[in-house]
Amino acid sequence: MSHGIAWKQRSVLPGFGLSMGLTLLYLALLVLIPLAGLVLFTGTWITLAEFWDKAVADPRVLASYRLSFGASLIAASLNGVFGLIVAWVLVRYRFPGKRFIDAIVDLPFALPTAVSGIALTTLYARTGWVGRWLDPLGIQVAYAWPGIVIALTLIGLPFVVRTVQPALEDLDHEIEEASASLGATRWQTFRRVILPTVFPALLTGFAMAFARAIGEFGSVYFIAGNMPMKTEIAPLLIIIKLEQFDYVGATGIGVVMLVAAFVLLLVINLLQWWSRRYQA
Amino acid sequence: MSIEVQNISKTFGTFKALSSVSLNVPTGQLVALLGPSGSGKTTLLRIIAGLEQADEGSGSIYFHDEDVATQPVRRRQVGFVFQHYALFRHMSVFENVAFGLRVRPRRARPTKRDIRDRVHRLLALVQLDGMAGRYPSQLSGGQRQRVALARALAVEPKVLLLDEPFGALDAKVRKELRAWLRRLHDELHVTSVFVTHDQDEALEVADRIVVMNEGRIEQIGTPDEVFHHPQTEFVMKFLGEVNAFHCRVDSGRVQFDALELPFPQERQQIEGDARVFIRPYDVTIDTKTNGLPSVTAEVIRIHSAGPVVRLELRTATGQALAAELSQERFGTMNLQVGSNVYVRPRHIRVFTSA
Asked: E-assigned strands of B258-327?
């Protein structure tokens, strides 16, 4: 072949041209054009000084970034740990009600986020079923940052479970037996053999849960209390700015979140590529 | 380190995988567990390794004098080699081999330098010294299995257990590797048990062969013994091709087809209905009768491509019979499909019908 890179290979199933064209069109219409519009609008209508003042240096905006990214990170990490355990239980054991539990995992996908937000608020408010036990201990969940974390954890859970599950199912039982026969303890087998094998999938699930949490608005809206500087997440701040007809501020925050999310996902993808380096 | 298996039984649900199996593997021997699938050979190997538990109340397993039946697999110090290698794919070849040393408790763990030296010695032993940095996905099947073997040997196992180690490899690599395994064993002398369903592999590699069928041991012996002196009909049929006929044994005479021959075995004589077995190479084919007892047969098919010529025959009474003769002899006989020949068994074996 005279080209350095083989763009396409002859195959018994042709269709590269058609499917690639559809892919580009689809992504362009849904993702690329709206987001490029956002960046273009910011670039042409807003001066750098304005952008800096309204979307970066403003303490209220800064606090919302910290909260949004911090809470999302905690939520995704919680999901990383517990999602792995849930997936493990669903793959490895047989027990009555397994199918039911398997179905429940997807519920956060389908539930309107407002519903889960209101339900969690009712549960964790000072008078709620759970909140009333936590309140005497001085732990406030609803209308505080822990409530935001819980809401974000709920909506991110399916991502980790559903990405780790197939990886665990693919795991060859013999490699655990090999590990044990070589003298490894159960913990060593988990830590050195199982975890590294499912790590790429876990990372994917983590990234998706994290991305989903950053963008989440509906459920947090109800449980956060939305106090400026304290429990105000960035997506909410965008709405607030829009309601005040501060289009410049809203767009600026949007761009910052877009760039930050893009960088984070890029880093996670690099990590993933690194953790799959053994695949030829 | 010898292995002693005493009255081990294993049931999966209602399926009896092993029925009271006893076996002794002397120190330093290479023993093959040979049998068809479902004969219990892999189950027995896995019970020896501790990967499977024998039925409650069945017998015990000793390594030398130590009862290991209650020990978990990681304490038994066995090297186990799996049919599909079971390499850790996220680890390099080096890391795979070093694994068993790295997971030791700190006081028993060799130093970094010792681990490196030992891994490289083992990789040299399995002829993969240049591959230490590769990942399993970059190796061929034969190379992967040698890595798996080096990994199992790294922990200096008391016994080496191999479950169909060459089963996933293609025929040529399989032949090379089994010859190599035999040489390796002669160098290391670690007591080894390997499972196979390939009789050629067992006959070529093993010091002793344990022929298994339906959860029982049919015969234990050297390759010569099980091949030339099969003690059961199953062993006779499993090790090589046979022609089988119904026969009657009457006061020391075996009658089958149109033949009557003296009862052949040194073993206890039997009477009445039985089955007679003839290996294809244990018959003499002649175009003329020479007075010795023989049956007439028609040549149905000739396979002459190969080191020997194989004939498919049909006797006058309509029974199928396979025969083998040398290319030289075939060349002198001018046989065609449809030729009539005289067939004389040189060696028969008789077993009572089950």
From this structure: 259-262, 272-278, 283-286, 295-303, 308-315, 320-326
